[in-house]
Amino acid sequence: MNRVEQLARLNAETEDDGPALALLADALTAGERGDYPVAAWLTDASGRIWAKGQNRVFSGGFCSAAHAEMQALDVLEARSDRPPPPLLRLWVSLEPCPMCLTRALYAGVGEIVYLVEDEAGGMVHRRDQLPPALLELVRRVRCRPARLSWAVARFAGELARASRAELRAALLAGSGPRPQ
Q: If residue 42 lies in a helix (H) or strand (E), which one and from where to where?
């Protein structure tokens, strides 16, 4: 059974499972395209999706800034009818890296919810290590791991680890010339 079929068989058992399952479908699309299987949404309190993003680091060439969160924030900021960012929740299938966390803080989102902790590259669980100016901003944002059922959490973790070594090698190869 492939991942799409596995995802379709999962049921929402917690309040966060519903959005998580749909977010994971977007992350699967990114992974199938050859990018990191990461997706991000910006939603309001009613659950309305205002912006979506998928990781596109390797799509159409190499772009180091094409993380899912960055893509979603670009879409949101291009809209003229957007709600105030403090009223928005950033859902991410993988804990934001330092670059994406910083961008979300500067954008002013009200909450960050991530499905999988990224021990190697995530910054939310290390937010107390941010520089003073960013510490002031992060104190204004609610940050938390999603409350997922066991099956959804397991699927999300497996997806986050899918092709990680191969993609990391590609990232390092595509990140530019090495100093001599």
A: strand 39-43
Q: Is the dihedral of CA 25, 89, 101, 10 positive or negative?
A: negative
Q: Environment class of residue 57 by beta-carbon count within 10 Å: exposed (0-12), middle (13-18) or buried (19+)?
A: buried
Given a contact cutoff of 8 angstroms between Cβ atoms, the answer to whether 142 and 87 are in contact is no
H/E stretch holding 43? strand 39-43
Please count the CA atoms within 13 angstroms of the CA of 147 that sit on its side-chain side: 4
pLDDT in tens, 114-155: 999 999 999 999 999 999 999 999 999 999 999 999 999 999
Angstrom distance (rounded) from CA 162 to CA 158: 6
Place of tokens 């079929």: 5
CA dist 6 to 86, 102, 154, Å?
Answer: 35, 33, 11
Coil, helix or strand at residue 144: strand
